[in-house]
Amino acid sequence: MTSEIVIKTDKLTKRFGDFVATNAVSFEVYKGEIFGFLGANGAGKTTAMRMLCGLSIPSSGQAKVAGFDVYTQTEEIKRNIGYMSQKFSLYDDLTVRENIRFYGGVYGLERNQLKEKINYLLHHLNLEAVAKTKVKDLPLGWKQKLAFSIAIIHEPKIVFLDEPTGGVDPVTRRQFWEMIYDAAERGTTVFVTTHYMDEAEYCHRVSIMVDGVIKALDTPAGLKKKYAAQSMDEVFLKLARDAKRSE
Amino acid sequence: MKSIVVQNMSKSFDKGNVKALDNVSFEVEQGELFGLIGPDGAGKTTLFRILTTLLIPESGKATVDGLDVVKDFKEIRKRVGYMPGRFSLYQDLTVEENLSFFATIFNTTIEENYELIKDIYIQIEPFKTRRAGKLSGGMKQKLALSCALIHKPSVLFLDEPTTGVDAVSRKEFWEMLKNLKKKGISIIVSTPYMDEASICDRVALMQNGQILDMDTPLSIIRKFERPLWSVRSQSMYKLLTDLRNFEGAETCFAFGDAHHLTTKNNSFDAPSILTFLQKMGHSKIELERVEPTIEDCFMALMKNS
After folding, report:
1. CA-closest candidate to residue B106, choices B147, B143, B140, B68
2. Which of A37, A233, B35, B296 is 20 to 30 A from A198, alpha carbon to alpha carbon?
3. Residue ranges, chain A, pLDDT below 50
């Protein structure tokens, strides 16, 4: 992790009519940081993430992602980030190889680059034997690992992971986090949401959103100290219990 | 009489290519809170669909309330409550309309069984004229549970009710289940969250269509054979790889703010681990023997299966 800022928001706000989904949120995320973005259902996480991914224009406030403005440079943002969620990841009816080729193409990789990437990923993920298998026939854990690798196939500065490990078995869930660590060590910033509180411990810093605002932002150790809690689960419960709204 | 008896149940899909259930057997006692714990693809939903008579098993037998899941399907449907994993109420009906619809098709009224759902329904009653599709996730869940209970079922099936739900709402939901249990309803609930196992009377740990182990949460934990250590140091990522290279290491997994190390046997004591870590250049080492959690047990069982 370095001191180079890759995401900076200043009073970032999104209103839907009278409803303020994200309310004047300000924070910074550094290069190579694993940033945990936590909150109760309906706290405003998804809305904030959509703005940072260039998918939704803010109502007010400022934000820059990978150096690009969230109002005027949304296309540049999309090219410089990766995104993966449990719901949106791969095409089930394409094979492993076809999925890699498709996404590599979408992200504008050159033919040679793409060929190299396909071989590298198949080898690195130990998927050579199933390269011609349709993704729907893979175990969930393999799919998630492949989806993550594809989300960073264009070597983006930042990758957004929206509940990437939901429903995954405990061993695969940990292997997935080792991939996250590996990507962060190589300088990719990881912006991740999760409902597993033990995973919050693996983040460098964690923010907790409640009712549209960031209630707390610190290292897991700092948060536990501040809220006199044994675990991140306890911190979360203390902060989110009084939430007024849900989804 | 047992609430549920399952004997050697198997079911496969895709012309036998996918074995969803592989010779599964278990029983649920009356009034028991029984948990099926396992990741996606373990076979939990298939099992629920068979027990609620929505799927026919390939081989094996099962009874619910003493009734056969194939022969007596009509009778079973009257007696069970089922909350599927995906929200399945009528989005265009209001909260109250949904509840009264389910009461009507089961030949009863909201008033008749109000006592059973009161604690849950009271929380969404202020929104009874709101369409179900416009409810928040937590409220949808409460309405779905109310609808599954309105005909006073003897067995309640809850398929992953807490998936995708935040930690606060998850805790609230389990509180509701504990209260329902007191009313004598047998509850069988599935979850991918290992930490929820401790609230169940008994659990079956499932993976790839098989039951890895089944017992009370405490007994499962007691069966954990190897010495388990919680380890921390100033460099947690390096610690993980280093510990895996320790000659006495069986497994090492990240576990929240510490790593959990299992050692091959008792001859690898604290001093031997400490010496190794110091040699690898670690500082601020914290090492202690700890009790395993259900998740530790699950991972150990996965490895053996």
Report:
1. B147
2. B35
3. none
Q: Let me know the angle formed at the C-alpha of A116 by A115 and A117, rounded to the nearest 5 degrees.
A: 90
Residues of A with CB under 8 A from a CB of B: 39-42, 139-141, 163, 166-172, 174, 177-178, 181, 185, 195-198, 201-202, 220-221, 231-233, 236-237, 240-241, 243, 245-247
> Taking CB atoms and an 8 Å cutoff, what residues of chain B touch A220?
257
Shared-domain flag, residues B21 and B140: yes
Residue B31 and residue B157 in one domain: yes
- Calculate the alpha carbon distances from B130 to A44, B54, B92, B94, B123 in Å: 22, 30, 9, 5, 13
The residues pairing with B186 across neighbouring beta strands, listed in sequence order, are B155
User: Could you tell me if B139 lies within 8 Å of chain A, comparing CB atoms?
Assistant: yes
Q: Are B129 and B95 in contact (CB under 8 A)?
A: yes
Could you tell me the domains of chain A? 5-240 (3.40.50.300)
What SS3 state is found at A84?
strand
**Looking at per-residue confidence, does A89 or B161 come out higher?**
B161
Domain match, B160 and B58 both: yes
Assess contact for A191 and A158: CB atoms under 8 A: yes
Do both B192 and B232 map to the same domain? no
Whole-angstrom CA distances from B254 to A50, A142, A172, B299 are: 30, 19, 12, 12
- Please tell me the distance from the alpha carbon of residue A57 to that of residue A47, in angstroms, as a whole number: 10
B162, B107: one domain: yes
Q: Are residues B213 and B268 in the same domain?
A: no
pLDDT digits (tens, 9 = 90+) for B50-82: 999 999 999 999 999 999 999 999 999 999 999
Token look-up 């949904």 returns: B98
3-state secondary structure of B190: strand
Find out whether B184 and B32 touch, Cβ atoms under 8 Å: no
Radius of gyration of chain A, Cα coordinates, nearest whole angstrom? 18
Structure tokens at A143: 């799919």
Give the whole-angstrom CA distance, residue B148 versus residue B185: 12
The alpha-carbon gap from B284 to the nearest alpha carbon of chain A, in Å, equals 15
Mean pLDDT of B270-290: 95
- Which of B136, B255, B295 minimises the CB distance to A246? B136
Whether B126 has its CB under 8 Å from any CB of chain A: the answer is: no
Report the SS3 class of residue B159.
Answer: coil
Tell which of B164, B197, B221 closes a domain: B221
Quote the domain boundaries for residue B17: 4-221
| Pairing between β-strand B186-191 and β-strand B155-158 as defined by DSSP bridges | parallel
- Taking CB atoms and an 8 Å cutoff, what residues of chain A touch B38? 169
**What's the CA gap between B10 and A194, in Å, rounded?**
34
Last residue of a domain, one of B221, B252, B287: B221
Give SS3 for A111: helix
Q: Which pLDDT score, from 0 to 100, does residue B305 have?
A: 67
| Continuous segment of H or E residues that includes residue B231 | strand B228-232
Q: With an 8 Å Cβ cutoff, are B164 and A171 in contact?
A: no
Please give the Cα distance from A218 to B126 (Å, whole number): 38
